Description:
Keywords: Coiled coil. It comes from Streptomyces eurocidicus. InterPro entries: TPR-like_helical_dom_sf (IPR011990). By secondary structure, this protein is mostly helical. Among the domains are: about 1-120, Tetratricopeptide repeat domain (Serine Threonine Protein Phosphatase 5, Tetratricopeptide repeat, Alpha Horseshoe); about 260-348, no CATH class. Helix content is about 80%, strand content about 0%. The protein contains 17 helices and no strands. α6 packs antiparallel against α7 (about 145-160) and α9 (about 185-200) packs antiparallel against α10. The model is unreliable at about 345-348 (pLDDT under 50).
Amino acid sequence: MYGKAFAPEYRGSLGDLSVNASLEEVLAKATEQLRRAERGGSDLESAHAGLAVAEASRRLGRVAEAERAWKGSYRAARRVGDLGAMAWAVWSGGTLSRQRGDLALARRWLATAAELAERGGDIVARGYSLAGLAETGRIQGDYQAVGELHEKLLAEARKRGEARHTVWALEGIAQMHRNTGSYDTALAMFEEAAGIAGRADDARGRAWALRGIADVRSARGETEPALALLSEAEATCREMRLVSALAYNHKMRGNVYFRAGRYAEARDAYAGALEEFLAMAEPRGAALARLGLVKSRARLGRAPEETAADLDELHRTLGGIGLLHARDMVDKARAELGLAPVGAAAAR
């Protein structure tokens, strides 16, 4: 049985903030609390408030502010020797590094966070840090290495009745099944995640799950139901100001249009998502949106040599980030579009 979802990253005097609070509301309250804590000389409360500032800023795409805030949170926690608070701050830094496309740094920070949490006896911080490591490996396409960790974290979350973490783990495992062609398993897990999130009042988790369901249904040719699911999820993203989730929602809308052969609509959706990703300095999302944009323009009659050159560049970009699965998508796009292997355009 799962309890109501909660946000463990909102700590101390901010612990009563709802998991569904809008990010602007969280940022405003956390910023004010940080000022009060600093004036009052409370380092631990400064660490808690700084963490909330960091996470709200990160999710709003304000990466410079997020960077300053998590480091400030860590310094405050270190001054009082609170290992748990230190772990949460470093977890935030690792998550930010992954969002910015520095996956090697993300792994280092998240491993450090897990170690700090272990020493400090903060089970939840340890779980979130290990989850971050698992997600980093998953988005790189290293499914074999992180699949077991995902399953272990799912079992731990189920045992504790922790709805939000269970939803996260289900969605991660479902995404791996979807990417390897196990659509039935992926759909069942995305639907279970959506159900748990709905009952636990986890609007963010449910929005991500709906996106996953839409993806699988679109891949099966169910275009209109997929678009309806994305519209429902988009409403949540807008209400909570989930900037990153909204951009990924728009990129998925492009995917749905593309699969349905609606290439002009796909082009426009990808172009909009690309602008959103660039605005928040999220290179992974930007590269994936750019790939969809290149494919859509190719289907709309763009010159093959221009398409090939763009795909060459994307292959290098994705390889530099370390996104092995996404780089394979570029190779697949070349085959679909009847283009020469990677590097041919540059060689010419």
